Every structure is written in structure tokens, then in C-alpha cells.
Amino acid sequence: MRVVNEDRPHLFVLPEDDANSRLANGFWLEVGSLRQMYVCPVAGGWNAVLNHFESDQIADMYRCSNRFMVLLIDFDNHLDRIDIARDRVPLRLRDRVFILGSLTEPEELRRALGPYETTGKKLAGDCRDGTDTAWNHPLLQHNAAEVARLREHVRPILFPP
Amino acid sequence: MDIILIVIRRLYVHNFRCLENFELDVAGLSSALLIGNNGMGKTTVGVALEVLQKIARGTNRVGELVKPKDLARGRTDVPMRFEIEVELDRTNYKYVLALEFPQNFKELRVLEEKLEAGGNAVYTREPARVQLEIEPYTLARLAGQGSFPIDWHLVALPIIQQRPANDPIFVFKQWLARMLILRPMPSLISGDSKDETLEPSIQVTDFGAWFSGLLALAPSAYAEIDSYLKQVMPDLTDIKNPEVGKDARSLVVQFAGNQGSLNIAFEDLSDGEKCYMICGLVLAANRAYGPLCCFWDEPDNYLAPSEVAHFVLALRKAFQSGGQFIATSHNPEAIRRFSDENTFLLHRSSHLEPTRVRPLNEIPIKGDLVSALVRGDLER
Fold first, then answer.
1. Please, what is the end-to-end C-alpha distance for chain A in angstroms?
2. A138 in contact with chain B, both atoms CB, cutoff 8 A
3. Is the pLDDT of residue B142 over 60?
4. Which long-range contacts (CB under 8 A, 24 or more apart) does B228-234 make?
5. What are the pLDDT digits (tens) for B47-101?
6. How far apart are CA B180 and CA B286, in angstroms?
7. Is the peptide bond before B291 cis (omega within 30 degrees of 0)?
8. pLDDT value at position A114?
9. Do β-strands A67-74 and A10-15 pair in parallel, antiparallel, or remain unpaired?
10. Where are any strands of DSSP class E within B127-183?
11. DSSP designation for B290
């Protein structure tokens, strides 16, 4: 059995490190369809996320049109990483790939919003309820455009009515 | 909606196997994970809980609970001590049991025993006398009847007469008796039953009786079991528990697909499939007669790698809304599904040293956790 049911739309998350993995865990604990989401092992750096995406995930996304992907990275105050990352996503897949992350080190996010898992739950709650309570935090608000796309495509998958 | 908190706040164990001055603080956590190398004491934490649970389930002979060999490195000069603090629906309970092994004795005896509720003593115990401290026993005490003598080789908790429902002795004992301490041995689980229970054994060899007991208490629990199992085994259509003799039943699982249907005796399911079944019952039990506390020693055992994350997440999610799930694991996929705040590292440098426990958020880690575990960097 595969890690998700590929016959139905589903979301993979590629986290840069443990901190991002725990954010994703918190998000995952809040979704209604647990089995339509999977958080991959940590890549070990933002560039490693992109390398892993290119080497392991692109072919699978071509094969499986139900797959959506979040690349969860730290921007380390370099918001140009959004464009760098997007340039490495094939045009045909860009609608299904989302690039999200904290503006700085995740430790700052922890100090501001609490434990990663708790923050992940708040971010999921925002996605589910259409609010921006946590996403509006200065360390996260640069994600607004991607979050809007994520809501449009992923909310019906993970938070079915 | 208020969440009904049913959680272990603190477990303290002293002079029991590898646990010396061992304190596990899991207050406020709906789920927690114990990690560490083999022989570090993860399973022993479950065994300590099992000792306490046996008391709540009626075993009161000290010699049937622990043996002299359970004293840490054979130390007889200090008592063996168990303390558990739990929050049950906004009231804190604390149960203390200390045992000693005097010279020339063949089994340990009770040195101290105490139950508190809401900070007040319910009963106290000196070696051979129990003193009841709550109404109506305090009134009886005025008449010189609030205490009774007891054999010092017997634990008092199972034999003190309890009043129904809101008696703190009843509340605490029922919670502890119904706690799920699981170390399943799927190859030993047949699905046969002759009775019903809400208190499955550690190895869940009485799965059939648990299934029967749960559905007798709450028939609607089947919907919860069915809903979970159909996610992991989409071709499952039904679970039947027909009579196969006088007062005997045997579980049969039915699967169906385009080519027809197939009935499989429970005992013929794979080990992993039996674990799905156990998980289904845990989820349903927590809803039907919980919130419960569940200690599951290596829940990822027997599971396919692709199933571990969902299995662990399903349990963690279910216990978020009440109750507490504590797991041990060596499995990277299971370990990744917990966080710094709810993961505890157990470690000792040698078999001559006691187990030490540290929350992961107090341990500096280079790189990712699983890699550090594989390298053995965390134990330094």
C-alpha cells in the first residue's frame, strides 16, 4: 500500500529540517483526511529540498496528477529564494507546487508563536477556517500569495466539508 | 467544548530494575514518545505502570506484583517506590506505594501506601494498618472504626470497600484498571473469546473478549472501528463475532472486491493487520469509555513502512481531544511524527547505572534528530 491513496488528491510536504517537519506535523494533526497527506523525511537544508524535489519528486508528480507539493524552507531573510525555488519547478507543475517558509530562522518563530507543533496546528486552523491569525505574523506574512493558492487547491482535500 | 483531561502528570519510580530516582513528567501532554537505545528502560516504564495497573485490577499480594530480583542491582537498603500523579477530570490524584525487603523475608512487604485526591488524603497506610481519611470514614474514625489492620504483604487499594461513582477510590481504581498498556503479540491473538472485558491484557491475547466487551457497552463503537479499518484495509466489509459453541465466540473478518468476497478467521490475519484491529479498538475505546491513557510499547512493530506515520498520527490525533497516548519507538518514521516538546530520551551508560530521562528540547542536536539517533550522538 502506498503512503497515500494516489487515486485521490493528496499533499506531500518536503521539510528543510526538523523544525519545519514539526510545523508540518502540527498541521497534519489538524487535517480531516490524515491519509491524504504525508510529510517526507527532512532534506537537510533549503537547497537540499530543491535537489530532492528535482531528483525524486518531479517524475512522480508527472506520473501522479493528484499530487500537490509543499516545499517547506527557511528563507533566512532571503526572500529571493522564492524565485530561485520556483525557477527549479517545471512550468507544467507550478500550479501544484507551493513554496512556504519562515522569513528567518525557525527558532525566532518558536519564540514568537510557541512550539512548532502548536504553530503548525494554528496554521492549519487558519487554512481550514479561512482566517489569517497565524499566517499574518511578520515572520510568515510573505507567504500570503502562496497560502491563498494553497487554500484554493488543498483545503478541499485536507478539510473536506 | 471543554476537553476532559485524563492524563498522567508524573510517574516516579525508585529502586525498580533500571529505574532509580526516575521521574517522567508528562503533565499537559496528550501524547508523548520515549526513545533511546535497547536496554535503556523504555519497556520498564511500561512494566512499572503494569505493576500499578495490576493493583487496580485486583492483585494485592506483593509477591505477585514484584520480586526481590526487581530491586535495582539487588539493593535492599532502600525501598522500592512507585508514585503516580494523574489528573482525572480536573481533580489531581496521587497514589504512592513503597515496598521494602527486610532481612530474612522471602518477599517484599508494604512500607507505605497512600492515595490523595485534590490534595487531601483518601487513605494512608503504615505497614500493618490502613487509616481511612475521607467521609464517611472520618465519622467512623471518631467512633474508633476508621482504620483496620492489614497483612503487610497485601496492598490495600484493591480491598478497601468503595462507594459507587464519585468515590475517589472508585474513580482512581477504574481509571488505572482501564488504562491500556499494550505490548501486543499478534501471533498469540486468536480472536476467540468466552467472555467480555474492557480491560485487555498487555499482549492483547484477549482481543475477542475486548471486542465483545466494547460492543456490549457501546454498540455504536463499531462505526468508529469500521471507519478506521476501512481506511487501512479498503476491501474490508464486515467483522463478525459468531457463536462457535456454548458461551464461545470467534471473530471472522470479511473482505470483498470485484472478484467476490472472502471470510478470514481473525487468527489468520497478518500480524500487521491484527495491529490495525487493535488500533481500531483503541480509538473506539477511547471514545466509548474514555478518555483513557494508552501506553503502547513500539506501536510501529509489525507495520509496513508506508503505514507507520498514519498509524501514529491517527492515535495522536484521537487522544488530542481527551486522554493520553504514550509510545516507545525505535522507528524513524514514528519518531519523526513527534516533536521536541513531547519526546523524551532515556539513556544509561551501562547496565550498572540507572536510566536518566531528558526531554528532547533540552538536548542540543546537530542536524536532524533521526540521523543523530542513528549516529548515537544523543546519548553523549
1. 26
2. no
3. no
4. B228/B276, B228/B279, B228/B280, B228/B283, B228/B284, B228/B314, B229/B276, B229/B277, B229/B280, B231/A35, B231/B310, B232/A1, B232/B276, B232/B307, B232/B310, B232/B311, B233/B273, B233/B276
5. 999 999 999 999 999 999 999 999 999 999 999 999 999 999 889 999 999 999 9
6. 10
7. yes
8. 94
9. parallel
10. 129-132, 147-149, 180-182
11. -
Say how far apart CA A65 and CA B252 lie, in whole Å. 38
Taking the CA of residue B243 and the nearest CA in chain A, the distance in Å comes to 33
Rounded Cα gap, residues B15 and B51, in angstroms = 14
Give the CA-trace dihedral at B49, B50, B56, B62, to 10 degrees.
-110
Q: ipTM value of the model?
A: 0.95
pTM given for the model: 0.95
> Which DSSP letter does residue B71 get?
B
Task: Please tell me which of the candidates A3, A35, A115 has its beta carbon nearest to residue B339.
Answer: A115
B150: pLDDT strictly greater than 60: yes
Residues in chain B: 380
On the question of a cis peptide bond just before residue B136, with omega within 30 degrees of 0, the verdict is: yes
Residue type, A19: A
Cell 476467540: give the residue.
B192
Give CA–CA dist B377/A122, Å, rounded: 32
The angle subtended at Cα B189 by Cα B260 and Cα B303, nearest 5°, is 70
Instruction: Output the nine-digit C-alpha cell for B356.
Output: 536518566
Chain B positions touching A33 (Cβ under 8 A) are: none
Confidence of residue B1 (pLDDT cuts 50, 70, 90): very low
CA distance B37 to A123: 34
Measured CA to CA in angstroms, residue A103 lies from A28, A50, A143, B365 at distances of 22, 17, 9, 22
Distance CA(B121)–CA(B115), nearest Å, equals 6
Give the separation between CA B333 and CA B300, rounded to whole angstroms. 9
Q: Does the beta-carbon distance from A41 to B314 stay under 8 Å?
A: no
In terms of Cα–Cα distance, which of B348, B264, B253, B269 is closest to B302? B269
| Inter-chain residue contact A34 with B317, CB threshold 8 Å | yes
Spatial CA neighbour of A100 closest among A132, A145, A67? A145
What is the residue-wise DSSP string for B175-215? HHHH-EEE---GGG---EESS--SS--TT-TTHHHHHHHHH
If phi > 0 it is left, if psi is from -120 to 50 it is alpha, else beta; for residue B31 that is beta
**Nearest residue, CB atoms, B368 vs list A2, A39, A42:** A42
Distance CA A132, CA A149 (A): 14
The answer to whether residue B268 neighbours chain A at the CB level (below 8 Å) is no
Contact B80, B56 (CB under 8 A): no
